[in-house]
Amino acid sequence: APPAGGRGGGADAPTTSPGQSPPNSDEEEAPTFTADDLQFLVVFASQAAIAISSADTGPAAEAPPRQLRQQQQQQHVQQPPRRARQQAQPAGSSWSDEMGRTSSTKTNLLECAGCFKMTVVDDEEEGDNARSRRARADSGGSATKGASQGGERCGVAGRDVDALMRRPQVAAILQESLKSWQLDSLALAEHTGDRPLVVLGTFLFDTLGLVERFRLERDRCVKFLDTIERGYHANPYHNRSHAASVLHVTYAILELGGVRGQIAAGAACDDALALMACLIAAAIHDYQHPGLNNDYLVRTGDYRALRYNDKHVNEHQSVAAAFEALQLPECNFLSEMPVAQYRKLRDLIVDTVLGTDVAEGSRILNAFAEATGSSASSDAVEGRASQPFQPATLRHASLLLQVAVKCADFSHITLDWELHLVWVRRLEEEFFLQGDLEKASGHSPVSFLMDREKPGASSTQVGFFDFAVLPLFKALVDAAPRAHPLFDMVMSNYGRWKDIDDARRQNIPASPAAGRDDDSQATSTLCRVSTSHLFRPSLVTRRPSQNAARQNAQSICTGRKELPSLLTGSPKAHEVHSPSGECGGTGAAGSGFGSLLAKFRK
Asked: Within the chain, which residues score under 70 in pLDDT?
């Protein structure tokens, strides 16, 4: 019998002897939800809907029909032993383990550091994977042995990423990224099968010599990056392509902008360690981002806000979950790093990721201005520093890195105008989706810029540049003069937004940069930017729409009586591809939720 206060009922819950039949369900009172039940539904519905909407089109999705039928037939096997299932799951997935204990099918919902994947394996394979994990954990393993069956479940193998990097289009983009301030991460995602982060990250770690410098387990590094990439949900803006874009601009600021050299000259920190810390921080900075801002999570009492005491909620979740993923044996590429060096690396990563919180902008700028002896004012934006800042202490070096990654987090502002507009529209749509959720949840008033019936983010860009962007980029180029090409691009986009704003105030058809010869028809007015550019075909092939997925999650969270198809096991739910790329034989909920769904229907 379950303990008092558990999900199975409190101390007064009726008990049934082994030979006694349960009471008639028609005669008993309709059960009431406990707080655990409601929290379970909210977390599962939102995560499962987002995970399904971000499902990857892996090899299994492209398999021949005969192979798919064989995979479906293999699903009708017994439940794996509890011990093997627990070892196959990352630490902290207790509720996922509970679902596995009650499931009557062989479908396991594994939480790979927070990214839900539907994986179908048999008992023997599950046991072998668990044993291989224990063997690698005991012996330390090698990069070659790391690509075992258990490791494959965490991500693509290193040789697969190498094959992607050898594609002509991908190789050209990667080589150009080494010397350019700009990268079209959406194009990279299209050419890599929606794998921009793991491909770019692996390429930079190889090219910059970080694997050899720190004697990293390369295959585990690839698996870690792939795990992080799979943890990025299919949000319009905070997605894996955004992470790849931020990663590239971080590289550009440190290498092309000379920040790495300044760290080395200051001798306060190992410049290679600082470079690796910034690249990792850029890759994980929005890991598991739900597409909702910190303010919303705090106002609604989200479990993440409760866990992190309302402070930097998304940022804390991203960095904590990423280091949790790093503890997986097949992903821990830093296992051989000396403890003191690892602690310094971790401190830099944590400080840098937490610094990406927009609410930290003023504090970081003021502290950085004090360290450099400059002004945090946004005046005199055309000024150029004569001497680069060389941090003499670890704290000053950390501040310089935080400013660099904060600028990189605004990566789309540094892109060409047309691509910049695409990302602004993506951000605006993500804001509107949060506004829709706020309306459905009865929150009033709807957050600023998030009501789709009112002007959105695209109507306030001039103010955003004035108060958030320009002071930050000015502080960067004052401390790192070689990064001025980045600032020049920011000023170019700022000028065009001012032209649009001025035209709007005068009721003149918006024509940004009137009189400039380089204007194209696509930039003549913001309204002409086609919404078809919001989602590339490679990002939505064989997936339910983002709105449909959010509506399914929203239906559960708002307590509607009619269950959406996501949880009812309808034929459409059977056809949805799982996040791991395999064709699931059951719906997202599966029969493992029978008792909970029965309670929900009542």
From this structure: 1-33, 35-157, 375-386, 508-602
Distance CA 148, CA 157 (A): 9
Residue count (the chain): 602
Radius of gyration for the alpha carbons in the chain, expressed in angstroms and rounded:
25
Nearest to 385 by CA among 259, 288, 503: 259
For 483, the 3-state DSSP assignment is: helix
DSSP reduced 3-state for 111: strand
Per the omega criterion (within 30 degrees of 0), is the bond before 445 cis? yes
Q: Supply the pTM of this predicted model.
A: 0.63
User: How many angstroms separate the CA atoms of 408 and 176, rounded?
Assistant: 18
CB 474 within 8 A of CB 448: no
Where would I find the beta strands (DSSP E) of 346-405?
none
Sequence-ordered alpha helix ranges (H) in 180-312: 185-191, 196-207, 210-213, 218-230, 240-251, 259-266, 271-284, 294-299, 303-307
Q: Exposed e or buried b for every residue in 370-395, given b needs 16+ CB within 10 A?
A: ebbebebebeebeeebeebbbbeeee
pLDDT digits (tens, 9 = 90+) for 139-158: 333 333 333 333 344 444 57
| Exposure on the CB side of residue 464, measured as CA atoms within 13 A | 17
- Which amino acid is present at 160? D
- What does the alpha-carbon distance between residue 502 and residue 280 come to, in Å, rounded to a whole number? 41
Grouping H, G, I as helix, E, B as strand and the rest as coil, residue 218 is helix
Residue type, 75: Q
The tokens for 577 are 């591809």
Query: What is the rounded CA–CA span in Å between residue 434 and residue 154?
Result: 30
First to last CA, the chain: 23
Neighbouring C-alpha atoms within 13 Å toward the C-beta of 181: 21
CA 143 – CA 336 distance, rounded (Å): 12
C-alpha 526/C-alpha 535 separation (Å) is: 17
Q: Which helix (H) or strand (E) holds 137?
A: helix 123-139
CA gap 61, 55 in Å, rounded: 10
Q: Which of 542, 545, 534, 548 is nearest to 583 (CA)?
A: 542
Cα–Cα distance for residue pair 229/239, rounded to 1 Å: 9
Alpha-helical (H) ranges within 15-105 are: 35-53, 65-73, 82-88, 94-102
> Smallest Cα–Cα separation from 164: which of 203, 199, 201, 205?
199
Q: How far apart are the C-alpha atoms of 105 and 594, rounded to whole Å?
A: 12
Residue 311, SS3 per DSSP: coil
Q: Each residue of 490-536: pLDDT tens digit?
A: 999 999 999 999 998 887 665 444 433 443 333 333 433 333 333 33
In angstroms, the CA 400 to CA 479 distance is: 8
The secondary structure of residue 503, as a DSSP letter, is: H
